[in-house]
TrEMBL record:
Protein name: D-isomer specific 2-hydroxyacid dehydrogenase family protein
Keyword terms: NAD, Oxidoreductase
Coiled coil: none
Domain called D-isomer specific 2-hydroxyacid dehydrogenase NAD-binding: residue spans: 114-280
Gene3D superfamilies xrefs: NAD(P)-binding Rossmann-like Domain
PANTHER family with a match to the protein in the record: 2-HYDROXYACID DEHYDROGENASE YGL185C-RELATED, 2-HYDROXYACID DEHYDROGENASE-RELATED
Keyword NAD: yes
Keyword Protein transport: no
Length: 317
């Protein structure tokens, strides 16, 4: 009996939306995804014949919803992104949805560490100054680091911070065995003793603007804020005010709100804001990690085993 699982890749004629760079060889990348399906024991077929679907089309969820309504035999959908809040309307449909959460954590956590060190050492201000600027650097050693979110990025960042002897607080919604984890409702209590605040959690209605004017006011004026999650986690206007008035000392932002950040946005004029244009993970790395997840999930789907990165429809991540 042929037990090969049938998987469609959409869009079926061209690959788009994986990674953020425009220099991706889309044909080669699609071939890699198809190879990942085959390595997991699957066979690439048209959507009309598929049991599972690897979705690679950027934009909103409407085309996916239409495809799933037209092909009710599809029981599982793999999305290529770690953050999938913009696809929430699709999660009410019958298929099981998986995303890439956790797949890109190693590169993103490295980027978070880089932003932390750059902020503590005033790299942005020094790099923009065309004269000798003597500012004492601050060490990460022994600092108190509060991480919002307890997923893969937080876990990898904790490992990177260990050599620095940091005191680490991890705040998340769900209980977790990671040492130091506390409920996210304890945020206000944690902020006054926080030297470095790292935002690394999923974007939901509850976490939008989780860092606003009241939270920034609770941080010490020497604190730095780093965001490697989603721009709307932080109230941008409040952040600009805090940077300009010295309410906090620096911000390292891989993501912003709005995004892309307009050329005339006031954040660009803050000489203590380091902005890295949402490229904590490279397109090549994203494609590689996505293919590895596709291979494992195709094999698990064929075997009826648990899938990696299952999206909770109630929370949207």
């Amino acid at each position: 009996m042929n037990m090969t699982v049938k998987i469609a890749i959409a869009p079926e004629n061209a690959l788009a939306g994986v990674g953020r760079s425009t220099d991706v060889d889309l044909a080669a990348l699609r071939e890699k995804v198809a190879g990942a399906v085959a390595e997991g024991g699957g066979k690439v077929v048209p959507a009309a014949e598929a049991e599972g679907l690897v979705w690679l089309l950027p934009g909103g969820p409407e085309p996916l919803i239409e495809l799933l309504n037209d092909h009710p035999a599809v029981r599982w959908v793999q999305l290529p992104w770690a953050g999938v809040e913009h696809f929430a309307p699709a999660f009410a449909l019958p298929p099981v949805f998986t995303c890439a959460k956790g797949s890109f954590a190693p590169q993103v956590s490295e980027h978070a560490l880089m932003l932390i060190l750059a902020c503590l050492r005033d790299v942005t201000r020094k790099a923009r100054t065309r004269s000798w600027l003597s500012i004492n650097p601050r060490s990460l050693h022994g600092r108190t680091v509060t991480i919002l979110g307890g997923g893969g990025i937080a876990g990898d960042l904790v490992d990177l911070l260990r050599p620095f002897g940091c005191r680490i607080n991890i705040l998340r919604r769900r209980p977790d065995p990671i040492p130091g984890t506390t409920p996210i409702t304890d945020l206000h209590a944690a902020l006054p003793s926080t030297d470095v605040l790292v935002v690394a959690l999923s974007l939901t209605p509850e976490t939008r603007h989780i860092v606003g004017a009241p939270e920034l006011a609770l941080l010490p004026d020497h604190a730095v804020v780093v965001n490697v999650a989603r721009g709307p986690h932080i109230d941008t206007d409040a952040l600009v005010t805090a940077l300009r008035t010295g309410g906090i000392s620096a911000a390292g932002l891989d993501v912003t709100d709005p995004e892309p950040l307009p050329a005339d946005h006031p954040l660009w004029t803050c000489d203590t804001a380091l902005i890295t244009s949402h490229n904590a993970d490279s397109s090549v790395y994203v494609a590689e990690m996505l293919c590895e997840r596709v291979t494992r999930n195709v094999a698990a789907f064929a075997a009826g085993a648990p899938l990696e990165g299952v999206v909770d429809p109630a929370t949207g991540y």
